[in-house]
Amino acid sequence: MKLEQLLVEQFDITDADLTRALNYQKKYGGRLEQILVNMGSLPDDQVQPLIAKYLMLPVFNILEWQEVDLPLLDAAEIHFLINNNWLLLKKNASKWVFAAVDPLNISVNNWLVKQGISADILIANESEIQALASKLADSSNQSLEENVSGDEEERLRELASEAPTVNLLNSLIGKALRQGASDMHLEPFQGRYRVRYRIDGVLHEVERIAPKMQLPIVTRLKILSGMDIAEKRRPQDGKIELKISNQEIDIRVSSLPLNDGESVVMRFLRKDNVRYDMSVLGLSSDIEACIKEDIKTTSGVVLLTGPTGSGKTTTLYTFLNALNNDDVKIITLEDPVEYQLPGINQVQVNSDIGFDFSAGLRSIVRQDPDIIMLGEIRDKETAQIALQSALTGHLVFSTVHTNDAASAYTRLLDLGVEEFLLNAALVSIVAQRLARKICEHCSQPDPEAEKYITKYDLNDFIERFNIPSIDIRKGIGCEHCSNTGYKGRMAVTEYLACDDTIKALPKDANFINKAKTHNQSLKRRTLIEDGLYKAILGQTTIAEVLRVAG
Asked: Whole-prediction pTM value?
């Protein structure tokens, strides 16, 4: 069976894409499957099983070789093999075992024949070869790094456009997307770059890039994102739009000079996978009902509070999406605009030209909107315009950085906002954190449930909030959750309605405690209590609740 036929029969490759790839191969050379990966028509994770099936060879499992001491060759042979994406795993007098991306590589096969070597070959992908090559560089004390001067821009561009660099970067990004990562971090670490993915808010180390690949990878990212490849002394920002693993994706790229190199962080914005729906947020049913009533009002301010990365913007987008119809005009002011919402006018601030939040908000109110979403309240002027807009018939959504709901009052007073304005304009305040959900595929009862019930007095807790039973669970780890036991995230929230009692309370040093006491009298939960509520229902774990809200 020809490779082309296997691609059509086994994978979702269109005739048009296959024809384009074959024409490119005929004109420029290269491996057909890798050309399709670079086109975004074939997911990178399909290449290994594809080649293994085509050549009837076993697939390389990197986990089986992590603790094995790799055999050493001389420096020239190491360079030769790794440059051709081959790696020697084991050797003895009768047979050598290799991991290889392309077992049909003519140069390596000629070398094997010349050396009289009998070889077993395992099919690997390029990132696996580079990960083990990094280990080999350590054990042999041989540096694989090429000495490239910062002034040699042409040489940098050549390195960045070579197939090993392109394939390794595509492989890392494709793997990040498959694992559901929101960010990918490339950081100098012990003489190499380590690659970490942020999955469900937690960083996981997944790769270490061999020394010789560090500079090409960073340079390629800078070229793709429109950065200055010669500038290594100041931070830079850029954006990449590409198609990889059959997904259209925007990537925000940020580089930061460190003492021992550059740190590069990529944030993945996957438009097709984002759903702005209340059911997706994971709000508790009682809090969701209160919020739905609040956003139906025609004027007032609804605030979300929490640290960076707690999902405030996503929650605000969900509120806007619920209100978005032909009868209302919605304008947002953001820094930056990350996701485009159909039917909503979105404005990005630009501090370089003096168009900041306060200036943008003054312009927005002259556009006759019904609903305004303000990315963040950062100063007194912005806060006052937002609150005054609410008094003149606008429904305003915004965020502030505080630890809990009641502290939003303190924060706004510290900015210089008058107390009467807060009492008149605020409708409700929602404090939010994001907790990882237990993977539904490997969820099981937690054997330490009784210990948690005693330690946190959960029997009293279920009586206070009328919970029918306790179902404390944990994830044991499986292929669906990359063996973490968690898959996806949900909102843990504290809701504070700005009712007559809250408005009447003096906004002094005792306000926060009195507001919390009032909330408790209404059987509303604090952040950690809402987390425990979800843990008791088997949706997340006690440990995760303590991590995000403890």
From this structure: 0.73
